[in-house]
Amino acid sequence: MKLFLAVFCLLSVVASAYCSLIASGASLRSTTALNIRSGPCTSNGIVTSVGAGTTLKFTGSVQSGCGYTWYGVEVNGKRGHAASNFLTEVNNGGGGGSNTGASISVDALRRIMPNLSSSKANQYIGYLNSALAAGNINTCCRKSAFLAQLAHESGDLNWFVEFASGAAYEGRKDLGNIYPGDGVRYKGRGPIQITGRANYRAAGQALGIDLENNPTRAADPDVGFRTAVWFWNSRSLNQYADQCNQSGFDITTRRINGGYNGKADRDAHWTRGKSVLGC
Ligand SMILES: *[C@@H]1O[C@H](CO)[C@@H](O)[C@H](O)[C@H]1NC(C)=O
Ligand SMILES: *[C@@H]1O[C@H](CO)[C@@H](O)[C@H](O)[C@H]1NC(C)=O
């Protein structure tokens, strides 16, 4: 099929859009302000609009309509179709993906988190990048702070369930643990280790998933990265990450941890992230 497409591409200008050979899940960038439509034609309704330079995820769909070729795209948690003329593929070489906007490449992620295996990084990268985009974690300063906190909380994305039983949280009304067993039921899960009935309920409501009744879902990567971003934004942490200095980063540590547990490890990941991503 790829060979067929390649030959077809060389012979046909009209068909060039079918020749993108872009992998599903790849990052695209808008070259101008752009409307994302519900179907592959300008007569379809606008699902959302993006500015120039926005990173979008390619869903794998390619369709023609109204004189354009339309790529299926996902951005800000919304899916639709965008005219391919106004999209460029973000450089996909050397470790998969780019580090612009809300995306991070597997290569950069693994340099920031040396204990993350290549297979896990490749398994998580799509969930992570979708969550970063949905949460506007889209600058070097934001990504390096966010990833440093995740790295510490999950041991470089290796542990999505807290080691302790959770019994220590029993009866913690400040966490919404008001029923017997809540401490264990709502122990830390996901890459940022959300904890407590109140957080599971609020995250679930925000994401449209009933986490209060299905708490273990928070440990699955498709949900976990979204709960991490939900937590980050529910505490308005982008604004402290934007300071891009130690005092701003310390505030993110305190809001996540309640204190400065693991400060040296968080700081080391943060410093490495800024250096890898260039800020
Ligand atoms: C990686 O794991 C090893 C062994 O658990 C640990 O000693 C080391 O500190 C970890 N490295 C990072 C960067 O977290
Ligand atoms: C950190 O950055 C913020 C925002 O630019 C600034 O107001 C604050 O003074 C800085 N803190 C230090 C210790 O430099």
Automatic annotation (TrEMBL):
Residues 1-19 form the signal peptide. Pfam families: Glyco_hydro_19 (PF00182), SH3_3 (PF08239). Residues 23-91 form the SH3b domain. GO terms for biological process: cell wall macromolecule catabolic process; chitin catabolic process. One of its GO terms (molecular function) is chitinase activity. Keywords: Signal. InterPro entries: Cell_Wall_Dynamics_Protein, Glyco_hydro_19_cat, Lysozyme-like_dom_sf, SH3-like_bac-type. This is Predicted protein. It comes from Naegleria gruberi (Amoeba). The lineage of its organism: Eukaryota, Discoba, Heterolobosea, Tetramitia, Eutetramitia.
